Amino acid sequence: MKSIKRREFLKGSIGAAATFTVLSQNKSMGAANKVVLGIMGVGGRGRALLSSLVKRSDVKIKYICDADTRSYGPAAEIVMEGHDYKPKFVQNFRKMLDDRQVDAVVIATSDRWHALGTIMACRAGKDVYVEKPLSLSIWDGRKMVEAARKYSRVVQVGTQSRSAPYTDKAAEYIRSGKLGDVYLARVFLMQESGPIHVAGVQPVPEGLDYDLWCGPSPKLPYRPGRWFWRLWDFYVGYIMADMTHQIDLVRYLIGKKYPETVCHAGGVYHFDDGREQPDTQFATFEFGKLTLLFEASLWSPYMHRIVHLKDKTKFPDWPFSATKVEICGTKGFMCFGRHGGGWQVFEGDRSIRESKAVVSEPASLKFGSIIDAHFDDFISCIRSRKKPKADVEEAHLSMVLCHLANISYRVGNRKLRFDGASETFVADNEANKYLKANYRKPWVVPEKV
Amino acid sequence: MSKRILPLVAVSLICCNLSYSRWIEISNTKVTQELTELGGPRIVIEYDIEDLEISKDCPAYVFIRYSKGSGSTWEFLAMEYLRGNGYGLVESPGHKKIIWWGTSETSFRELGETGETRIADFGQLKFRIRGTRMVRVPAGEFKMKSLPGGGYDESKSQEPACELSLFYIAKYETTVAMYTDYLNEIGREGAGWNKRMSDSRRCGIVQNGSAPNFTYSVKPGRENYPVTYVSWYDAAAFLRWCGLRLPSEAEWEKALRGGIYLDGDKRKQRKNPLPERKYPWGNESPNTEDIYRCNHDGDDDGFPYTAPVGSFDKFDSPYGACDMAGNVAEWTLDWYSTSYHVGLDGFRMVRGGSWMAVPYACDAITGATQFPLKESSIMGFRASYGTRQHTLTNN
Questions:
Q1: Are A81 and B148 in contact (CB < 8 Å)?
Q2: Which member of A107, A116, B205, B305 lies 3.0 to 4.6 Å from B197 by CB, making a disulfide possible if both were Cys?
Q3: Is the Cβ–Cβ distance between B47 and B11 less than 8 Å?
Q4: What is the pLDDT of residues B296-330, one digit of tens each?
Q5: What is the pTM of this model?
Q6: Given an 8 Å threshold on Cβ–Cβ distance, is A73 in contact with B154?
Q7: Which among B143, B145, B147, B152 is the top mutation candidate for probing chain A, defined by the most A β-carbons within 10 Å of its own β-carbon?
Q8: What architecture is domain A6-160+371-390?
Q9: How far is B59 from B260, CA to CA, in rounded Å?
Q10: CB spacing of B154 vs A196 below 8 angstroms
Q11: Which domain holds residue B338?
Q12: In CATH, what number does A162-196+226-367 get?
C-alpha cells in the first residue's frame, strides 16, 4: 500500500470537483438491496462504529480506509467477524468515492477531515454519516450543509442522543407546556481529564501517509500521540468536542437556533501543557427571553459520566452528573442525562418548602443501543431520502454555539453579537476572523461546494 | 537426620495430558506417599521429561494441579510447598524428576489406625502435571519503542523502560489444545468458552454436553493453532490457572528484540547485533524476496487465517520465542489511557500484529488498544514467568 501521490490525489480532488457527476444518487435501491458502505477512518471511533454496523444485515462494508495502513487489521477483523468477508482497504479515500457501488460513507477520521470529507463525498453522490464535532469552524459547517442540500444527500451526524427514545419524550413534555415557560437552560460538561503530553519528533513511521493524515491542517513535524489536540488548527478542544452532544440535546429540547449574543468566561487555568483551548469554559447565550448557560471543566474528578451507570432503570446522582442538562421552567425543573441517563422533572411544594420528582423517565437501554438506533435512522433515511433526526444542519446549528463560545474566548472573553441569518458577528472584524479555519492547500474547503 | 520411611502406598493417578499438543510430554509418572519421622507425611511425584530442547535458555515450566476427590474440582499446587527438581523452571531433560510435597501445610492430613499421621484418602488424590516451553530473557538493558510510530501512552512514564530483571516468556503462543485442556478442568459450567471458539477456521474448540457437565474437544487438526476469541480476562484466568501471568509491554518487546547484550548485563559476552530491530529476525520486511517470515495479512504466507504455532520458527526472536510477529496479536498486562480517556479507561495493550495485519504492523513497536472484554479471532496470548515488572501503569 503506497502513499498517495500528491498529484494523483489532486487529479480528482476538490479543484476538479466542479465537474463531478453525482454518480450514485440515481442508483435504484430496493429494500432488498444492501446499503454499500465505505468507512473513512478506522481508529478507535471508527472501529466502535464498525462494531455496530456489522450487526446489521442490511449493509455491506465494502471499504475501510485510513491514512495509517497499520489500522487495517483490527478494523478488518470486525468486518470479518460480523459479516464473514474481508473489506477492501484503501489509503486514498478517493478510490472509495469513485466506486459507484458505494452508497454511503461513514467518516470517523480526526476532526480536521470532517468538513472536506463530507463535501467530497456529497459531490461524489454518496450519503454521509460524519462524526462529531462536525467542523473546525462555523464556515466549514455551513459548507457541509450546502453540499448536502446541493447534491440531495442524506448527511447524518454522530450526535446519537437525538436517536434515544427518551429524548423525544422529554422534548414532548417541554413542548406540551407542563414545565411552564422556560427561561433558563443549563448544560454541563464537568469532568476529569489529564495533561496532554507531547512526545519528541520522530521520523514518519512506515505505512502512514502523514501528509494525508494532516489533511487540511498544518503539516507539523511528526510525533506519536495526541499532541495535535492542543491546537486550534486541529481541534475545537476537549470540551467542545464533547460539549456538542449536550448542546445538541438542549437545542433539541428547547427548540432554539441562533442566539443573539454570546459571552464566554474561563481559560486555560489548570493544565500547563501548552494547549490553546481552555480547560475551563463558562458561556452565556441569549435567545430572546431564554438564556442558555454552559459550564465545563476538565479538572473535576468528583463529577461522573453517566456511561458508568450500569443500571439504566436508575437515575444519575444529578449533582455529580458530568453530562447533564437542566431545563428550568416556571412550573418544573427537568434534569436530563446524556449517555442513557434518562430524565426527571421536579416540582416544588410551597406548603412544605420541598421539591420532589413528579415524572421519572429512565433510559432503560444500553448506551451502545443508541448507536444502533442512530444507524437505524441513517439507513432508513438513505432508503426514504428523508432527513435524519441528526441532520447535518441541526448538528451545524449546535456546533455554531460551540464555536461562538470559543471565539468569544479567543477575542478576550468579550460579549459578541451574532447575526444568525448571515452567520457572522455584528460589526466585529476581530471576531469574524475566526469564522473560517486555516486550510492547507490543496485540502481547502471550497467557497462553492 | 533419622528418618523412617514407611512402606510406599504407590498410586499412579497422573494425567500427563499426552493427548494435548504443546504441553511438553511428561511420562512415567508415579506418585507415592511417604511418612518421615521428623518431616511428617509427604507426597513424592516422579516423572520423566525427555524433550531434548529443554535447556537453561529454553526451560520447561512445570506445574501441578491436584484433585482431592472425584476430579470434579482441581487446585493449583502452590510451589512454595514443594521441593525437588521437577517443578517450576526445569532446565534439563531427564529421568526421575522429583517433586516432594510436604503435606503438613495441607488440610487433608489425618491419623492412621495405628496412630501415625497420614494423608487422608490418598487413593482419591489425583494429580496432573503439565509443562510448557519458556525462553530465558536475561536481566539487562534494552531499547524500547525506539522506532517511530510506537504510540504514546499518556498514562505512563514518559521514559520507556530500558532495563528489566530476569524473566521468562513462553516460546509459543498458547494453543487451542492447551486452552481446551484448561476448559475441561474449569469450564463445566461454561466459563472461559464462547460460541465463536467453535469456528473451525479461526479457533476450533467445541463445547459438548450441557451445564454443569460441559466438556470440550478440539476440532481435529486444530490442536497446535493459537487459541483465539479469548478476552483479556480469559487470558489472565488461564495463566493464573498455570501459575503464570501475561507479560508487560516492556517484557514483550524485549523478548522480541533482545537486550543490548543477549546474555544479559552481568555477562556482556554476546552483544545484540540489532538491539533496535524492527522484527524478531532483524530488519527485513516480513515478505521481501518471496520469503515469508511471519503470518500476516493475505494468503501468500501459506495461511489465510492463523498458523500453527512455530510455523515460522526460523524467524524467531533472539531468545527463541516464536510468532512474536503476526499470527495472533497478544494481550499484555498493560493498561492504556489518554488524557481524554480519564474516567473511561479500561483499554489494554495488544502487541505483535496478526494474520490480518499489514506486514509492517507486525513489528516490534506497533501496539493496538482493545477493551479487555474483546474476544477476537486475531488476538491470543502467551505466558510470562518472573516477578512482575515495568508495567509502567498508573492504574
A1: no
A2: B205
A3: no
A4: 998 889 999 999 999 999 999 999 999 999 999 99
A5: 0.85
A6: no
A7: B152
A8: 3-Layer(aba) Sandwich (3.40)
A9: 22
A10: yes
A11: 138-175+224-395
A12: 3.30.360.10
